[in-house]
């Protein structure tokens, strides 16, 4: 977003507005963190602000301030639709296409309000009146910090906002491990700590929350791990029955795919999780080095994301989905073996 656009947006936001902030479907730490941080900022400016999530998000993210104020579109569609129709501004965070909001896609396409996109994913759709899109950024939470900085309002960052932004940066950088973690990212994180984010407390709340059923489910996932040495690849499967047998709750499989990626010599890892209610297999892709899983997800799994982290889905059975992976890997063999790890 250039300086002229920032000044124009700042002028528009100088008067009272009805605003709705929306994350993507199945919100993660970056989505919840960016939405709640922006909420904390906009209410200080005197706006009427609501947060509408396409669906619920994991329990391990519900400790963040303002998270209890989210309106769940799946549960309260009529309430959410009315708020959206009355909104002067709609902020779309951590997604760059309406289809990423699931069942909200149709109404978003019909709205007359002013759209603001803040996102770091590749290939954004052209729907926003104000677009802040930067694929070099580690996270949308880092972008929210820079957005507030461009608005010359970093003095308004509260401990709750700092905590939310730090959480999104932490989770989207894999605890500062991914190469999207730049020196600027670390400086932003340091400033957020200065503003009240407690890094030890945040890490504990995000990563040290386990239940016996989740640990058992992890054991099942690891027992299903398959290694394809020829392609420097590992994958994991989890059937609906295996999820049900271990009392699966939203968020329980978060990070499972990283166990496969952590194996010595593995460049690419993928997890397949059956979602019988939607007749799909959900999948997450992770990689090391320059192997582009965003490209792979777009070409094969109706998805996308970032170079080293992406997601998608399959409408096939689990067996056929795995066979599809095995069938396409030869296409990527040279790229997989070119990665220096």
From TrEMBL:
Residues 18-169 form the DDH domain. It comes from the Bacteria. Pfam families: DHH, DHHA1. Residues 245-315 form the DHHA1 domain. One of its GO terms (molecular function) is nucleic acid binding. This is DHH family phosphoesterase. It comes from Nonlabens dokdonensis.
